Amino acid sequence: MDTSGPSPHVTALRNDAVLRRVRYLGSARDGLGEWQLQRWTALALLPLGLYFVASILCLASADRLAIVKWLSGLVPALLTMLLMATAFAHAYVGMRSIFADYVRERRASFLAELLLRAASAVFFGGSILAILKIFLGRMDA
Description:
- The chain is an all-alpha fold.
- It is built from five helices and no strands.
- It has helices at residues 16-22, 31-58, 64-71, 74-102, 106-135.
């Protein structure tokens, strides 16, 4: 019986040569947390998005003052801010996942992450400030 070939009971991950080649190619430390965050934010976006779409459809024929009056209420302002926070978190985690999968060069990966963080912070901050401005009554009619 020839035992020089690989045993049929050895899988690729148990083969030392294969394991040495694939080790350190990806991160297994935070992948599950990001995956779970992506699923939780997607789940939270469903009711928040449906509420927002229904509200916008009800306000479709309203004038600017009616929309400002609606958004200056506590519940609409709070739910809209939650929608923005959830949407930006979901988009941020998704884009990070795409960059991790497809951007291989270290410098390009760093720049992509930096740009993503900056854009997320600016757009999220701007949307929250706009909602707070309306909520706090500092809109010129």
